[in-house]
Amino acid sequence: MKKVALLLVPLMVFVGVPLGLMLMVAAVSAPAAAEELRAVECEGAIPATGQWRPPFQQAYAVSARGFGNEFHPIYQQWRMHSGQDLVSLPGPGPVVSVGDGRVAFSGVMGGYGNVVDVEHAAGVVSRYAHLANLDVTKGQAVAAGTRLGMEGTTGTSTGNHLHFEIRVNGSPVDPAAWMLERGAPLNGKAVAPSTATSAEAVPAGVAEGGVAPFDLPAPGTPRQASLHNKPQSIPASIKTLYVAAAKRYKIPWTLLAGIGMEETNHGRNTASSSAGAQGLMQFMPATFASMGVDGDGDGRADIHNDADSVFSAANYLVKSGVTGGEAGVREALWAYNHADWYVNDVLYYAQAYGGGQVLGGGQSCTVTGEGNPDLPPLSDSRTQQVLTWAASQDGDSYRMGANGPDAWDCSSFTQATFARIGVSMPRTAQDQRDWLAKGNGYRVQPGQERPGDLIFYDSYRGPSLIGHVAVVWDPAKQTTVEASSSSRGVGHFSYAGKAETKALFEIWRVGNVSDKPTTKA
């Protein structure tokens, strides 16, 4: 059914919508809009997400020799080329499995040279040819990221490279298109080592990108107050505040209890410190001015109000990067008080109160600001490609951590949508917003949005972090095309009223950028 709908979507997008929508797209397209600029990348390797990954960990070049009828450099004739050639940078480099499976073949196969075939579920086989050596044997179970061999030039080959194939029920398919549909585009970018995956489903409790919760780190050394001050009982009214703030900001309540114990013994000593810190969680007035929030709903943030103090501490930890793995927890606590012994004291107390898990985030560009307003917006033709593909997924399922091809979460859907025009975005909604702020787009005010813009707001990660992203469909009607929720799936929905009801609500325009620009500034 979806394949039939694809034929109708272009007409639906730019003929079936109101004329004003077409005019809006055309009106914002300045002459420079046709000029593609190189996308600005985030630092470091892209985290491996979902069930599939590229066959390299390091960066690589995507050869022009792809799937289809290609001129053979050795036989000097046009022949069917059943895969995609890739070259690691620097090369030769190790080749890894693109998914979980079992080795169906490991040996020499004619002109392929040294070959590994990995059999996956649903009749899918991935093939890795021209390897210099073989690191696996037939029948061996492998996971995504398992090393299979070293890139080489065995068989009929003119130099070191990987010939990569995907076969479905015995027939080769375009591996670039197949991998793109599954959230693992062959775009040449370095991808971090894979963690254990499940071919059946995304484990319960994961966030976007399949990021699993992680345990609070154990305390280390040095420690100071916790060496002689044992963790004390928590007054019921104070524990209620810890738990409520932790629920709102999606962090363990024990971490707040650790700070409360370290700072004031849970409110038993709230006198101002020698440095001028005040209240239950001991905020400096200047810090509270920027991080203070209304915890009890009275309409104001008061540094001496216990609820405001606890909720502000949770807000401060999240904004200081507490969701960024064990290192992020330590960095957030160090930001709270610049002392290693303080970090370890708080973690000691948190463990004593029961520890807990933090809902992890992605790999952020860690930037703020409004982006680059001098960028030309996406050209009309690229906007049409974005909206056409997004609309063609109408009716797909929503599943947190899913990467396609028939189930998505909000950010994997957005990532896949823009991958159709050669734009590689990060995996999570917060990271996509930060990627735009780094120089790949710019923020626009509500009421100025156009089709193809991105809307970001808070959701499951609490009020201090972006948790959802949607693509603007019709600004006049305030509708989106998005992966909305498990109950609504993928489709067209309204964003009317979100700006007034969400703690965070931002609209961003993607610049006319590309991984590999066809034109340059």
Account of the 3D structure:
The protein is of the alpha+beta class and 521 residues long. It is 27% helix and 20% strand. It has 13 helices and 25 strands. Helix 8 packs across helix 9.
Q: Top keywords for this entry?
A:
disordered N terminus, alpha+beta, 8-stranded antiparallel beta sheet, 521 residues, 6-stranded antiparallel beta sheet
DSSP strand (E) fraction? 15-25%
What structural class results from the helix and strand content?
alpha+beta
Number of DSSP strand runs: 25
Bulk shape = globular
How many separate helices?
A: 13
Poorly predicted spans: 1-31, 197-203
Span between termini:
42 Å
Provide mean pLDDT, rounded: 88
Radius of gyration: 26 Å
Characterize the biggest β-sheet: 8 strands, antiparallel
Helical fraction equals 25-40%
Question: SSE layout and pairings?
Answer:
Blueprint: H1 2-14, H2 19-27, E1 37-38, E2 60-62, E3 68-71, E4 78-81, E5 84-88, E6 94-96, E7 101-108, E8 114-119, E9 124-131, E10 133-134, E11 141-142, E12 147-150, E13 162-168, E14 171-173, H3 175-181, E15 214-215, H4 236-249, H5 253-264, H6 285-291, H7 306-319, H8 325-336, H9 340-352, E16 357-358, H10 380-392, E17 397-398, E18 407-408, H11 410-419, H12 429-440, E19 441-444, E20 454-457, E21 468-474, E22 479-485, E23 489-494, H13 498-501, E24 505-510, E25 513-514
Parallel strand pairs: 1-25, 17-18
Antiparallel strand pairs: 2-5, 3-4, 5-13, 6-12, 7-8, 7-11, 8-9, 9-13, 10-12, 13-14, 15-16, 19-24, 20-21, 20-24, 21-22, 22-23
